[in-house]
Structure formats: C-alpha cells, structure tokens
Design goal:
Blueprint (H helix, E strand, L loop, with lengths): L5 E11 L3 E11 L7 E11 L5 H16 L6 E8 L1 H7 L6 E6 L11 H5 L4 E4 L15 H10 L5 E6 L7 H14 L3 E3 L9 H31 L6 E4 L5 E3 H6 L7 H14 L4 E6 L4 E7 L2 E2 L1 E2 L4 E2 L2 E2 L4 E2 L2 E3 L5 E5 L8 E7 L1 E2 H8 L1 H11 L11 E4 L12 H9 L5 E2 H4 L3 H12 L3 E5 L2 H7 L8 H12 L13 H27 L5 H14 L15 E4 L3 H4 L4 H4 L3 E2 L7 H7 L3 E13 L2 E6 L2 E5 L2 H23 L5 E13 L2 E15 L6
Parallel strand pairs: 1-4, 4-9, 5-6, 5-7, 7-8, 11-25, 21-24, 25-26
Antiparallel strand pairs: 1-2, 2-3, 9-10, 11-12, 12-13, 12-18, 14-17, 15-16, 19-20, 22-23, 22-24, 27-28, 27-31, 28-29, 30-31
Length: about 675
Amino acid sequence: MRTKTKPRSLFLGIDTGGTYTDAVLWSETEGPQHGPSKGKVLAKAKALTTRHDLAVGIAGAVDAVLQRAGTDPTDIKLVSMSTTLATNALVECQGGRVALIMIGFSEADLARDGLRTALGTDPVVFCPGGHDVHGNTAGLDLSGLQAALPELGGSVSGFAICAYFATRNPAHEIAARNMIREKTGLPVTASHELSAKLGGPRRALTTLLNARLISMIDRLVAATEGFLEQRSISAPLMVVRGDGALVSAAFARQRPIETILSGPAASLVGARHMTGLDNAVVSDIGGTTTDVAVLDKGRPRLDPEGATVGGFRTMVEAVAMRTFGLGGDSEVALEEGALNPNILLGPRRLVPLALASMVDGDAVTSELERQLRGPNPGRADGRFAVRTGMPERLAAGLTAPEVRLYEAIGATAVALDKLLTSNAQNATLNRLVARGLVHVAGFTPSDAAHVLGKQSNWDPIAARLGAELFARKRDGRGHPIAASPEAISERVLATLTRWSAEVILETAFAEDGLDGAATVAHALVQRAVDAHPGIARLSVALDRPVIGLGASAPLHYAGLPPLIGNDCLVPEDTDVANALGAVVGQVRVSAEAQVSQPKEGLFRLASGGRVHDFLDEAAAIAAAEADVRAIVVQTARDAGTDSAEIDATIEYRVSTVEGQRLFIEAQVVAVASGRPRIAV
C-alpha cells in the first residue's frame, strides 16, 4: 500500500531585489521514512521593490501569495528572506556615510587592498595603538578620536573600527567602540567581530563596507518584522548569508556585510532544488546585476579568499560568485568616438522609463515628447532624476552644491536637461546617486522589451518614446544609430544576450585559472555572433549546462546555447528562485581560535575576544577547542537553530630544527550546522 506524504510546515520565502520583491509559499512535506525533507511551491508573486518604504513592496508580494494560496497567516512556521540590496549597493558604490577609525595604522595603509578607493570622501581618524602578532600591546591613545567625535556624530551614519592585529587581541577596538557608542549612540562595527583573518587593510575594508550597509539592512529587517506583526505572523525571521546559510534577522542586523551575495547564494540553493542538477553553471539575471557561479557535486563553490563585489575583495566567506553590473535595468549608453559605435550596458542601474511613467505619468511622457520635438538629439535626452525617499538623516554631510541640487530634485521625476546647467552638476548628481539619495531614470533593456511586446507590465508608451530618442543619437558619420524604436530595441536585447554569454564564459575561464578570461570570452563570443571563421577557427563549449534564473531569463537567455556550446535550462519557478532558495537552506556558523608561541614554553590562546596564556601546548589546544565549541554553540543559537551538529578541526603549523619539533601556531575551527527553529 502506498503511503501518502503529509503537510509538515508552511514556509514563507521573500527576496528583496533592486527592482522586484518576490514571495513564495512553500509546503514542506516528509515521506514515510525519516529522509530528507521535500516540498512544493503553493503560490508565488511579485511586487515592485519600494526603496523609500520597503514594507510596501514586501506587503504587496506576500499578501498576493497568501491570497492565492488561501492560507491563514498564522499557519506559517518560518519566514526566510534573501536580498540583493547589499550586493547592489556595493556594485553601485552606494551606502551611508561612515567614519573609519584606524588604530595602529598609517595613512600609507589606505593605499592597500582598495581601501582608499572604497573610503572615497568619508572621514578617517588615525590613532596610535594596536598589537603585535602575539597580542602584545603597542599603547593606545584615543584622544584624537575623542576630539573628533562631536563633529563626526552629526555627520555620519555609523563608525568602522580596525586595529592592528585586532584578531590576536581586540582590546583596543573594544575600547574605541565603547567610547563611540557612549558619545554618539550610533552603530559601530569592529573588525574582530567580522573576521579572524590577518590582513589589516582588507579587514578594514570589510568593516567599512559593513558599517555602510547597516542602515540599509536594518531598514529591510525592520520593514519585514513590522509587516509580519501586522499580519499576525509570529514565525521566526531568517536571512540568507552570502554562503547560502541561514541566520536570524538579529544576527544579520549586526553583520550585514555577510548578506552580500545573499540573493545569488539563495538562487544557487533554489537552482539545485528545482533542477536536481549536481553540476551546472548558474546565471541569475536581475534588474541590476548578473550573478554567475558554479555548482560542483551538488554544492556551490565557496571563495576561500573572500567575496569580491563591486571590485572590492572582502573577508566575507561566500559562494564563489562573480557579480557583473548587467541586468534588465542596466543603463544603455553609446560608445564614444566610434564610426560604428557599440551599445554599452551598465554597470549602473537606471529606473526604466516605462516604470518611471507608471509612477509619475505625464511628468515623464510629456517631457519625452518635448525632447522629441527638438531638431537635434541632446546628451540628456530621456534622462530624469527623482529622490529615492530616504530618511533626511541619511543626507547628512552633503556639500553646498550637493544640497542645492538635492533640494531642486523632488518626489516627481524632473528632466535632466532642465535640471542640470553645467558638467559640474552632472558630477554632483552622480555623487547623490552614489549616496542612495537620488535615482536616475532612463532607457534600459526593460524598456526595449516593452517596445517589442516581450514585456508588458509597465508603460509601453514611455518605453517607445525613450527608444525613439535613443535611436536619434548619432554615429561617427553623423547618422542616426537606428532607423526605428524597434530596431534599436532589437539591438539592445541582442547585446544583453551577447554580454550574458561573455560573463558566463568569463566565469568558466576564471574558475579554470585562465589569465585574461574576459578578453578570451569576448573574442569567442565575437566570432560566434559574427559567424566570421577567420584563419584560426575558434569554438567553445561548456562541460555542463547553464541554469538560467531570473524573471527575464526566458527572454534574455533564449539565444544562449549556440554561444556557450551547451544547453540552457530555465526552470518553471525561475522567477522566484531566490525566494525559494531562502526557505530550503540550513543555519551554518563557525568560530575560530589561534594558539601561538610568543616565546619558548609560553602558549598564547586568542579566542572570543580574550587572550589566555598556558605553559603547556596540549592544555592550550584543549582550551582552544573547548572555547570554540562553546562559542559556536551560542552563535548557532543566536543565528537561529537549537539542533546544531558541531564539527571541530585543528590545523598545526610546525617546523623541525635539528630533529626537534618546533610549534609555531595552531588554528582551531568549529562549525555548527542545523535546520532553523520554527514556530510551534
């Protein structure tokens, strides 16, 4: 007799992306034996991400799912969320203004690991202090920080602290953190809280980016919690980390940097769940980015050196994902100075004209019609600016020119050819966009899809007007670049498919360790598209299929197979892969401790923010293992699981001198993993 499966739990998955917020209701079922859990999608829905108030977009998607499934909200046992907001912010160089506190470092250290570039115009304070590799103090002086706090407290949204060798002794970071919290009450991130790895400037970079993202992720979590409370959903709220693991919302609030690549990581989990493929290249195209990663033996490859996003190499353990500023809402531009200019896409996201018109109506279409009546194309044609609706406190620290331009931009889209009167103002506008205070609207691939009838959820009239304006742009001979809105739209979509093939192949070549991966990928796709054999015949084929994810994947990836030499699978629920992946993952956290030998016969243990000395190696190692096990158990509880399995490993560094073993150091790591706790 066949035993039927029975409903076990209802899980709600949410993914907040740059353009859309997705929701999926998943029913977990359990077979007749205690095997792995299975389930099915009961309902799914999308709503526009509302950056000024994220709760609006979340409510739109979740309410639609609950209505379609006919589910009582109180039956939901777990809510899990992934997001691309942190990833998009780093790709687009956005985030709050923060102060970086460097203890024991010099200004020359800013030149390492891209730290100066990441810092931009944000303030930095250098203080004497720090420790050596064994945790011995160099003497701390926080008088400079104390003097700067009154001014900084009113001009930044948070602080990032990095002290020399803080991973071996965090005392100076803790002292600075306590002072800042007492004097300002603002969020503070200390580097030892995020990573136990050496490498001060890169740890400082990671801490700086974390501090920038705190307000953004805090708003997302607060919006979600507020919505759940309104709907009487009392289930625990989890967030997907960049390695695909789940952590509690409170955990993610303190360490938002760990949510970079959250959405892409969730999509990998979702892709594996939907297709059952163990080996594949997963390409997830959204509104802002395309994220490409490799599945090997059913698991995503992790980047041992830390995630790279927006050109910054962090110390965050995450999937080995390559993120490209290429998506349906990518800025469409024209190559400068070429006789036959190419179409350029991204990396900046624009609000599509079709979407902007849905919000502001005649304010957009009437301006587009006015520009079309002009005898010649203008550089700012088809471009608008509008405030994002961020809280006014996030506009702290603007320069006088930035304040004047910001005040001239309102909640209704204003045409750039009326707003900007000089090239300098264009640079000022870009700074406001980078701060996340202003959106620019313009012609995008999403508009091109509306022109061709391949997308119909927004205003096709505004999209067509924008395409007509773009088609009027001139090539190097002074001729219009396209004969019609349809012609330029076809060209834009073909370019997006072509560039998609290039980023997929570039990722594959990079995973194989090939130098110049981007150049080779471009050359191969160029030959494939142009069908020009040349003297040297070039062809390429991936050894595994591509799984195409994202709502626009069926459109943009239809032409991929001949360019990549393999199949491209687009699953049925590809449009909500991130939201689905958010509810089928596990909690996974780790803790590390180091044992060093500052001098012969003395073994120093650094773990959990404390330093202990031992006279016996075995005793120090045993204490280290006990410490990391205790720490990881508590961390796992904080991260959202009560049933974690613990695995501890010890890695020794030793040398042999005249036949005698010489202990150098040991690293002890404990990993806890388990299913998230659910409502009873």
